[in-house]
Amino acid sequence: MATEGAGDGGFDKLEPANLVILGDRKGQSKKFGGLLIDIIPDDQYPDKVRYVCVGVDGTDYEVAGNAALSKRIKKGHIGCLIKFVFEGREKGQRNEFKKIEVFVQPRDRTTDKQKELFPAWHDFDEEGKEKKEPADNFDEMG
Question: Which of 28, 61, 83, 135 lies at a CB distance of 3.0 to 4.6 Å from 23, suitable for a disulfide?
Fold first, then answer.
């Protein structure tokens, strides 16, 4: 995220991403939900992606991906409401992994109340309405 005109000589100030890491360690989130707006490469890990979501507060967040998420979340989910819930850790054949549940709501099931919470939802309509600032409350997503 850049702030136009910040800095000297026409440089833009680069802001850090609002990174969401799902898990049970300090600084990690046990749940997150929002409107999935893009899937981008992870700058630090070339074999991973990040899921860009607009949160209920109107802020763009990048949810750190992993192998389990990349097998379930596809480009076709962009424009849908999505929820991530960390369920704990499990032992695999080679190592321990995070168990993360993912819930995606198809666009035809989005309620008017949810559309009000996420006005950017309309950016993915055929009509392409203008983006407005969303309301704030994860639990009101439904």
Answer: 28
